[in-house]
Amino acid sequence: MCTIPYWQMMRAKDKKYFIRLEMAKFARTHGVRPAMVRFACARNTVRLWVKRFKEGGPSNLHDRSRAPKSCPHKTSPQEERKVLEARRQIPPFGPRRLRDLCGCKPSLGAIARILRENGLTKKPRRKHQRKNDLRAIKAQYRAFERLQADTKPLYDIPAYWPQMQALGLPRHQYTIRDVKSGALFVDYADELSTTYAIMATEKILERLGRAGVDLSRSVLSTDNGSEYGGGERRERQIGFHARMGAAGVVHRFLPPATPNAHGDVESSHGAIQKEFFDLEPFRSRCDLFEKTATYQAWWNFVRPNYSKGKKTPAQILQEEGLDPIILLAPPTDLDAMLRRQPDTQQVGQHLPVHPVFF
User: Which strands make up the sheet holding 184-189, listed edge to edge?
Assistant: First the structure.
């Protein structure tokens, strides 16, 4: 049995290496058999470490890698280059989207390894508190039973701001998202106002009503922004809240200090910035709306949502018995839409369009 003092083993950084070294020294002095008895091991074990000690000295007693020298099923360099090229073209795409949407053939683990080895991944931020998983609850809703509306400022996007200044592009995005299917509807304007929020929301509600969607049980939630009437101290007969009630939809404000309550629409804002505004160049205001319409159609008909069973919004609507054609609502230029609306209040001089366009 090994009689190496306990304190010597504890002081050793690598205890296995220390025992092998002592074994090799003892065997060279007293022989293989006495070393076998002293260290309580097999004869071949003593011979192995004595041989390695003779071949390379003490440094040859460390553990050696047991990894295979060849790996026939390893991802080929050509496939690795395809993965890296796809990732550099669309930086926000992770392994699942690279495989499902970009045609990368390696497994999810292999794609993750390739990205990690090439420094294309970020260390995940540590979460001290686990968020509630509401996917099972959201799956119980009917399509368009829960809607979330929010606005996104576009002037704080570094890649978009120079184009916005040079081409006169919209400064604000008005977003509506269905909680059940994840369907996305976006409109754009130069200003942040209640008028535009009403126009963007009523346009979608009218489209859903014409498609036969029952809005009597629908709830539309917004934050407490001024465009949604969040700053009003009392309920009025005009404004966003009143117009939603007239449309037959229940309008609810988010409770204070609940930033995660609008997780669906907020996550879409993060995705559209990474997948669209950070990547796409625009030639004109018209070009922006054309490309946004394409992105919205891709989101609703092609882009799989992994938190909803890897289904697209169109697939979920089909399962609900609704025609996915509802989702073909291209983004609207709310500024141009407002200019086309006639003045029905008849206050002062009646001007059918904005006077600057006369």
Answer: 184-189, 172-178, 146-153, 219-222, 250-253
Cα–Cα dist 306/310, whole Å: 4
Q: What is the mean pLDDT for each group of 10 consecutive residues in the chain (358 residues)? A: 60 78 91 91 94 91 84 88 94 93 92 92 66 75 94 96 96 96 96 94 95 92 90 76 91 82 92 95 96 97 93 95 94 93 55 46
Nearest 5°: phi and psi at 97? -75, -35
Helix 32-39, helix 43-56: angle, nearest 10: 120
Q: Residue 242: which of 231, 251, 233 has the closest Cα? A: 251
Structure letter (DSSP) for residue 260: G
Distance CA 305, CA 181 (A): 9
Nearest CA to 280 out of 173, 157, 159 is that of: 159
One DSSP character per residue, 143-195 reads TTSEEEEEEEE-TT-TTTHHHHHHHT--SEEEEEEETTT--EEEEEESS--HH
Element (H, E) at 83: helix 77-89
For 249-269, give one letter per residue: b (16+ CB within 10 A) or e: bebeebeeeeeeebbbbbebb
- pTM of the predicted model as reported, rounded to 2 decimal places: 0.76
249 in helix, strand or coil? coil
How far is CA 281 from each of CA 3, 160, 162, 275, rounded to the nearest angstrom?
74, 8, 11, 12
Per the CB < 8 A criterion, the answer to whether 66 and 30 are in contact is: no
